[in-house]
Structures are given as C-alpha cells and as structure tokens.
Amino acid sequence: MPDPILRDLVALNMTLRFGVADYEGLVAALGSHEALRKARISDLEKSEMVTSRLAREFVRLRDGEDPDEELRQTEERSVVVVPFTDPGYPASLRRTHNPPLLLYVQGRLEPADGVALAIVGTRHPTHYGATQAGRLASELASRGMTIVSGFARGIDTAVHRAALDAGGRTLGVLAGGLARLYPPENARLADEIVGHGALISEFPLFTPPLPPYFPRRNRIISGLALGVLVVEADRESGALITADWALEQGREVFALPGRVDQRSGGCHRLIQQGAKLVESGEDVLADLGDVGRTLAPARPREAPPALGREESSIVAALGADPVHIDAITDATGLPPQAVASLLMVLEIKKVVTQLPGKHFARR
After folding, report:
1. 288 and 252 in contact (C-beta within 8 Å)?
2. Are residues 349 and 215 in the same domain?
3. Which of 72, 185, 207, 263 could bond to 177 as cystine, CB 3.0-4.6 Å?
C-alpha cells in the first residue's frame, strides 16, 4: 500500500503544473494536507490557488487509479520516487525557488553529490568542444566532484562518458520520463550512469521529451550543482538557459572560450557579462574556495607513450581540427597502407582518435 501523502504528491505532479511552492501555497490556503486530500473541486477553486481546469484534473487523478499504477510501474522499473519531504531529496535543489515536488531517480543519490558541477553545451559540438568538455569533466570527476548534465546528444553525452571513464559519479537529468529514454542511442550510457550515479527526472514515467520540457529541466541541472560550466554554445543555445537559471539560483557560472567562428558566441557573451573563464579544472576549483580545496588532490598524469619516428610524424601532421587520412598521407610522405596501420596503432595507444569520414585528431 503506497504512502498516502506520496500518492497525493504523485497525483499533483502528474498534472505537470505543481512545484513545491505551489503545493505549499495550496496547503496553506486549505489548512492542511489532509484538507487537500478531501477537497472538492469547488474547495480548490475557492482557494484561488488553482484554475477550475487544474482543480478538475487534480481531483480526477487523486480519485482515480493513475497514481497507483504510476507507483507500481516505478517499482517494476527499479525507479525510486523521492518527494521533497524525503531526507534523500537533494538539499541544494530543495533550497531553490519552487523546486520539483518529487524526483524520479534510477540509480542512487549520495551525500557526496552535493559537491557537483553542471557541464552543458551544444548538441552539435566541434571536435575541440567535445574533447575539452570531456577533459574538464574527467579532471573534476577524478577529484571527487559529481558531474551533472542533461543526457542530451553532444556535450552532455561527452561529459557523462568522461566522468564515468575517470571513475567518477555523474547525474543525468532528463527532459521526459525515465521510461521514455531520450536520446535512444544513449541506452548503454544510461545503464552505466545508473551504476555510477543516477538518472533523474521530475516528469511522470511515460512523459515524452517535448520541446517545452527541456528549458524546464534545466533548472534542475543547475539546482543540483554548485555552478554551471558552458562549453560551446552559440548565442541562441539552450545551454544559456541553464546559465540563466544558475544566476537566478545563486550559482557560479563558468564558460570555456572557443573559436569565434565555431559555436562559442554564447560562451564569449557569458564571459563578457562576468562568467569565469575556464581553461582547466583547477580554475573551477579555485573559484569554489574551501569546497574546491576539500576535494582529492589531482592524480598524477600518465606519461605519454613512447612513439617511433614514423608515429611522431603522423602526430605532427594532426592539428587542432580533424585531418583526413589522405591529408595525413600527403603531409608525412608515407605509403597509404603504412599510414592506415600506424593510425590504428596510435588509436590503441590512445594518442589519436578516429572520427567519421576517415578523419583523425589528437586525443
């Protein structure tokens, strides 16, 4: 038998219209949560806290079977519903304006997640952007900082992956229900996040990831973190909405500079407006003061692998941008078969990475 208060909160949340501040105002107007549970549509209308349409929708959900089925489905899918009254609800998010009534959590939230940084950016990053986002996420995750992002394509995927590869924790905040995983190609990544962090959503399980829900979920991304780092965002990017939420919530805002002709206009504008310019994880930690100093010391970097003369010539042919294999062959003067073989060896040594269209870049 579900907890009756949790069931009521699930019903309220299924309207997609209530946050904690809305709920607390309604309870104050009616006198108690018990009064809310028994309220008729006319009672809710008289409270002047909800519209007639919303009052009817809530009463229909409260008195029907939908909340019970929702809770049954969460149990079946190993999803935990964490209401704002639960001690396990993230304290940093609870202190924001009108936080979610509840969170659907697949995986596990830990107290250490209170020391978190959100890293967000474009869904269509350049190689530079994806590489730098991954580098920063890896540096910070390896020092014990939880990395938060939005589980979207591009920068979000890169930082979740880098945090996991560094042996750290990461939280993915979805703009739809956990039973409607989006993007679908991140299914394997989702499984890994659940094992080393959590997937989180405020939306009922089967809510589709509709466009209006992405800006809404961004307040959770920033609310879970001490600050937000924006990597590669143009001036119209949704990542800037997360930065706006961060400012409203009193969080730090950081930005990574990039090329002026490639998707970094939004980052440069943030820096002009006072965001901290970031080149390394140390820049973030220094700005966080005592919190940054409590994290684990940086791990010593591994010595780069020894390279032969021909391998070194391949690496020298690679610049800041991806280079086609034919251009590498022309630059080195080596036979095409030798270049292909050497590139494979350098991939194994994790010196270069292959990109679509037979392009290669330094790692």
Report:
1. yes
2. no
3. 207
Angstrom CA distances, 93 to 74, 166, 174, 253, stand at 22, 26, 15, 17
Does residue 263 register a pLDDT over 90?
no
Q: How many domains does the chain have?
A: 3
3-state secondary structure (DSSP) of residue 164: helix
Residues 249 and 146 in one domain: yes
Amino acid letter for position 352: V
With CA atoms as reference, report the closest residue to 138 among 116, 167, 109, 117. Answer: 167
C-alpha span between 140 and 296 (Å, rounded): 10
Three-state DSSP class for residue 150: coil
Q: Is 359 helix (H, G, I), strand (E, B) or coil?
A: strand
Q: Which domain holds residue 53?
A: 1-75
Residue that is written with structure tokens 């994806």 in the block: 130
Mean pLDDT of 258-284: 92
d(CA 45, CA 260): 54
Q: CA distances (Å), 132 to each of 78, 235, 279, in order?
A: 34, 19, 9
Distance (Å, rounded) from C-alpha 86 to C-alpha 221? 19
Residue identified by tokens 């590498």 is 328
Q: Where are the alpha helices (DSSP H) in 183-264?
A: 187-195, 213-223, 239-248
CA atoms within 13 A on the CB side of 293: 2
Considering the chain, what is the average pLDDT of its residues?
93
Preceding amide of 215 cis, omega within 30? no
Residues 78-87: contacts with CB within 8 Å, 24+ apart? Answer: 78/106, 79/104, 79/105, 79/106, 79/178, 79/205, 80/104, 80/105, 80/106, 81/6, 81/10, 81/105, 82/109, 83/5, 83/6, 83/9, 84/20, 85/5
Residues 237 and 187 in one domain: yes
Q: What is the pTM of this model?
A: 0.88
Position 296 scores a pLDDT of: 65
